[in-house]
Amino acid sequence: MGMTHIVDRRLNGKNKSAVNRERFLRRYRQHIKKAVADAVQRRSITDIERGESVSIPSRDIQEPVFHHGRGGRREVVHPGNREYVAGDSIPRPQGGGAGGGGGQASPDGEGMDEFAFQITQEEFLDFLFDDLELPNLARKKLKDTETFKYVRAGYSTQGVPARLDVVRSLRGAHARRLSLGGARRRKIRDLEQQLAELKASPQEQDPAFSVEDQIEALEEEILRLKNNLRRIPFIDDIDLRFRQHQKQPQPATSAVMFCLMDVSGSMTQMHKDIAKRFFILLYLFLKKNYKKIDVVFIRHHTSAKEVDEEEFFYSRETGGTIVSSALKLMKKIVDARYPPSEWNIYAAQASDGDNWNDDSPICGKLLKNGILPLVQYFAYVEITPQDHQMLWYEYEKVMAEASNSFAMQQIADASEIYPVFRQLFERKAA
Amino acid sequence: MSESIEQPPKTPPSKPAAREPISTGSEWTFDLIARYDEEIAKCAKEFGLDTYPNQVEVISAEQMMDAYSSVGMPVGYNHWSFGKQFLNTAKSYQRGQMGLAYEIVINSNPCIAYLMEENTLPMQALVIAHACYGHNSFFKGNYLFRTWTDASAIIDYLVFARNYVAQCEERHGVDAVEEILDSCHALMNYGVDRYKRPAPISAAEEQRRQKEREEYLQRQLNDLWRTIPRSQDGDEEKNRRKLRYPEEPHENLLYFIEKNAPLLETWQREIIRIVRKIAQYFYPQRQTQVMNEGWASFWHYTLLNRLYEKGLVTDGFMMEFLQSHTAVIYQPPFNSPWYSGINPYTLGFSIYTDLRRICENPTDEDRAWFPDFAGTDWVETLHFAMKNFKDESFIQQFLSPKVMRDLKLFAIEDDDQADAYKVTAIHDEPGYRQLREKLARQYNLSYREPNIQVWNVDLRGDRSLTLRHVPIDRIPLAEDTEEVLRHTHRLWGFDVHLESVDDGKLVQEFHCPPRDMDEERDT
Q1: Where are the domains of chain A?
Q2: A170 in contact with B, Cβ within 8 Å
Q3: Antiparallel, parallel or unpaired: β A292-300 and A254-262
Q4: Who among A20, A72, A86 is closest to B471 (CB)?
Q5: Where are stretches of biased composition, namely Gly residues (chain A) (predicted)?
Q6: Model ipTM value
Q7: Domain spans of chain B?
Q8: Which fold has domain A252-429?
Q9: How confident is the model at residue A250 (pLDDT cuts 50, 70, 90)?
Q10: Contact B189/A66 with Cβ under 8 angstroms?
């Protein structure tokens, strides 16, 4: 015919919408940043492998146009009339607004009040680091995925149709059909057996309850159950399984990261949030370089304790501060579980600088002689806008002697996290 | 996957010829697509479908999402709202809420239709029949499209627009351009000429005349605004004072602003022009949804059944096709949780299908209602219906009592001055005509959108722009009217007023910047 021209466009770029998507994110930066900040609160610091779902109130992103409001008189034609005749009146639905029968007049969609969408992991990190003032180079290094490989990572109930695993889905459907139908099938078997017995056995003398009646009742019941069975759908949305893939880095060996934090009364939630972001940054950096990372959380006030992440960040304590307790515990854990010959050891300590004065010299000594020889790197951040105390000056002495594996910095707000971190970076990058 | 399939196909396919199917599997290849297209084209020719040449583009699911989010423009300028659209599309696609098979076909010459690679062969054939022969012949035949759009020029024009907007972004910054576009989009539905035919758009022409226009426009503007402070003398002056500018209300707000706003820079005027040209291009589509989708559905159904009669497709093929077809034309009843108004595919398909029946097997009722074409040649009659109407008049002309009965149509009146809804007409003898009229009116754009026009510009005073809204049936303007007015204000550059005048009485008013409550109105 020659009239039709068929073109294969699949190899043309697919990210035609990338610019528009980026424009959208740019316009709603503030909303997204807030969502990311909230997500960081919720998430574990090792949980940075995925993007995030962001919701924006629909009214904030609506594009206004002139349209009709509520009120006045309108007449709408609908399909599917059953019982109405002309002249009938139908009570106005209560509370449902003027929508009700006359839905045509709301051009603003289905009345959702949230606009939800996904941002990627990369975008998530971008927003997360946004006010940390990371230079682009460092950003890139953190997110770079040059040495990743894809590994299968199980199945999920959501996904794009192309990733649908037919066998899995059908297996699930089969299991669901069995579990929904099993009891009924058993019942049918029982009833059929009874029926057979009834039919086989000769008439018994029970005039009030004749065999025919019983047979009929049984047959009815069997039919009902079979109809019931037939109504179980062959495949249902909940059966669908999609293959999932995950990126995994392929670099060298293992590392352990110690997070040490003062949780005495003087540390507020704001201090802890800054600390958390610092820890995330460190974790990301390590993740890039090591295949396996353990994270150990040690918190302390007057005594130290190894805890899980939840307790680490979100439980509150009161009372004084003895920093050395945490250092001692860390050393003990290293000796017991993380021989430096097999593990790259990193530690980050966050504190508001408060310490019992007599303890600070002990800390300096412990650090210099007990810990620094074992670790790749030890970073100390002091989160306070105020003047330094004893601990800082003790650590400065350590710094003078062991600047290769030790860094310290004062942080007053989030924007100062990065400079501290950079010291660590530059050293590794060089 | 979650779409429910109801009713069996209406007419069983007639007895097939000896079966020699084009293919038996469900995997497609380029050769097979070409073969199917060739056979479908032959069938289309039997029925006299006149089309532009087709360009079928095979694309991936991701590319389909891109295409969806650019609201049917194969090339578009950049704007965040398209990004929003994209995020929405991606979300519902990933949740499996949405198939992507049908709707993308571009009113251009050649007519571009997208096939998604994930589709099975029967689906590809369905889309070819639907888009390449259904929609395509509609674009080429319907009078609105013939009058208002120029299929051969649209792609070039869109490329021109995209480049122009990109240049502006480079020169004036993304934010400045975004602002103007936001404001234009808010008024986009009021950027069309409803009655007067505009000059066809063409990229070459646009570029050639752009320069010329700049100069001319500036001269015009100067004239308009210069006369103001100068004229001070007596009678003549009094007469002018009474005249409004424009003398007649002006329906195309964007056009009026482009030509008359005092402070806009040239590039801003050009962007307004681009947006309204694109609005004009889509205007026929907004007025022919029922007709267009109904036509395409009627033809995919008819053409593929013809293939089956010729023995070119298998039973399995037909099963899959009919399943998709029934899903597409399914109309949930008004009390179903899935109900969201009348499905234009269903309504259009039903009307055309019944029209064919009326031509081929008319009843007494049909002869009474449709004396002009009961018993005439159906192909000719259907073409006549497709070519010469828009949704409103199409329904008014061709909606038959049988379709009203089949769909069980009924009308509900919702009057805020009454205590309850009232059923005003149903699918019975006294109701047919009313019902048809009411449904037709429902598709009249000027009933669906508020009637707002430019009323006056205060040439001698504060240069404010006054718009006038004429309500129908006392329906007021919605809450976000003030938002839209803010956009209008951004474009106009001086105060903007909007008065809602019902039967000579002022019932609602909006001002931007907002007016203090106690301040007195001075006109």
Answers
A1: 15-62+112-128, 166-239, 252-429
A2: no
A3: parallel
A4: A72
A5: 94-104
A6: 0.86
A7: 30-142+288-328, 344-447, 449-512
A8: Rossmann fold (3.40.50)
A9: low
A10: yes
